[in-house]
Amino acid sequence: MIARSLEYRIDLVTALLSKELRVRYKRTVLGYAWSLLNPLAMACIYFVLVTKIFAVSIDKYPLVLVAGLFPWQWIANSVLASSMIFVGNAGLIRRTSFPRAVLVLSASLNDMIHFLASVPVIIGVMLWHGVYPDARWLLFFPVLLLIQWAIVVGIGFVLASCNVFLRDLERLVAIGVTIWFYLTPVIYTRDMLGRHSDLLKLNPVTGVVLAWRSLFMGAPIDLAMLGWSVLWAIVILPCGYFLYRKMQWRFAELV
Question: Would 169 disulfide with which of 8, 163, 203, 230, CB 3.0-4.6 Å?
Answer without folding.
Answer: 163
